[in-house]
Amino acid sequence: MRVFRIRLLLCYVRHMANNTYSQRVSRSVKNRAYLAGVTHKQIAEAIGRSANPTSQRMNGHAEFSLSELEVIAPLLGATPEELTSPAPASE
Predict the structure, then answer these.
(1) Comparing 83 with 2, which gets the higher pLDDT?
(2) How far is it, in rounded angstroms, from Cα 22 to Cα 3?
(3) With contact defined as beta carbons under 8 Å apart, do 30 and 58 qualify?
(4) DSSP secondary structure string, the chain?
(5) Has domain 2-84 been given CATH number 3.60.150.10?
(6) For 72-81, what is the mean pLDDT?
(7) pLDDT at 83 over 80
(8) How do the domains of the chain map onto residue ranges?
(9) pLDDT tens digit sequence for 36-45
């Protein structure tokens, strides 16, 4: 029973880590898109996806692939690394 609880806890921790990463990247893409005047439709066209899968990525429910970020980054005036790096700490 104890092994099961540990495995369950590890699955939860992994899920939360991935979820946080997806949300951080999607927030970064959304913020930069807004500042650059780039629409969701333009992002969807650039990565070759329809509106629904792009919306899932933009809302943090699915992850952008590295190849998608490499296509999106120049549209937003950023690099893929800038889109995926943690936000600087607030002062």
Answers:
(1) 83
(2) 29
(3) yes
(4) -HHHHHHHHHHHHHHHHHHHHHHHHHHHHHHHHHHHT--HHHHHHHHT--HHHHHHHHTTSSPPPHHHHHHHHHHHT--HHHHHSPPPPP-
(5) no
(6) 95
(7) yes
(8) 2-84
(9) 999 999 999 9
Average pLDDT for residues 10-18, to the nearest whole number?
61
- More confident call, 61 vs 48: 48
Distances in Å between the Cα of 43 and the Cα atoms of 1, 2, 38, 57, 74 are 47, 46, 7, 11, 11
Beta-carbon neighbour count of residue 5 at 10 Å? 9
Structure tokens at 40: 């969701």
The number of residues in the chain equals: 91
Residue found under tokens 């806890």: 9
- Six-digit token pair at 51? 């509106």
Report the 10 Å Cβ neighbour count for 66. Answer: 10
| C-beta neighbour count of 22 within 10 angstroms | 18
